Amino acid sequence: AQSVSQHNHHVILSEAASLELGCNYSYGGTVNLFWYVQYPGQHLQLLLKYFSGDPLVKGIKGFEAEFIKSKFSFNLRKPSVQWSDTAEYFCAVNAVPSNTGKLIFGQGTTLQVKP
Amino acid sequence: EAQVTQNPRYLITVTGKKLTVTCSQNMNHEYMSWYRQDPGLGLRQIYYSMNVEVTDKGDVPEGYKVSRKEKRNFPLILESPSPNQTSLYFCASSPRTSGIAKNIQYFGAGTRLSVL
Asked: What is the pLDDT of residue B102?
């Protein structure tokens, strides 16, 4: 069965620190990969996505992620975090092709940025 | 504005009292889905719908029902809620494209349900 694992459950950083959140998935076939962000009290928003092509993808608000197929990983990065990045971050995967359209989510990582 | 709208946002109820959480999207999306979010478990799919009158179970369907009579609406029904259904629920929708499932899902704001 497909699964997604996010290694860091709770991360605390100071403003301007660099961020890397780990995400690994288990599925041997082709996948689409996503990072979603959930700001306090808000709905999930798409940060970035990978379907194919350049494994380094850039998203909104200065975030980027790198797909490393050999490691089944899709880590999220940001060079310099801001207080407004405080949120919960979810990595998600869906298999290609998909009969259900189901996104498999990781457990989530709570990021707290101290001003 | 393109959006997925869920109602209510917050609901406290008692065991066994039937309830419905509504979900509506204005993007003419074919695909809709319900997830529940629990601490440490991420989001898990409850039910999904590929189109009108086409629904199917996700990973955690027990205790839930859905219907898809119109393209824009996908209500989640709890016939007899129990405390283990206390959770945060999200509705999502997605345009379906033929071939590769470029399944970018758009989420509602969530419904926080407490069953006492």
From this structure: 59
Residue-averaged pLDDT of chain B = 91
User: Which residue among B4, B102, B105 sits closest to A51, beta carbon to beta carbon?
Assistant: B102
Q: How far apart are CA A103 and CA B90, in angstroms?
A: 13
Q: What is the pLDDT of residue B6?
A: 96
Position B92 confidence tier, pLDDT thresholds 50, 70, 90: very high
Q: Collapsing DSSP states into helix, strand and coil, what is residue A84?
A: helix
- E-strand stretches of B1-116: 4-7, 10-13, 19-25, 31-38, 42-51, 54-57, 65-66, 76-78, 87-94, 106-107, 111-115
Interface of B with A in 16-55 (CB under 8 A): 31, 33, 35, 40-45, 48, 50
Could B43 and A97 be called an inter-chain contact, meaning their C-beta atoms sit closer than 8 Å? no
Low-confidence ranges of chain A (pLDDT < 70): 1, 97-99
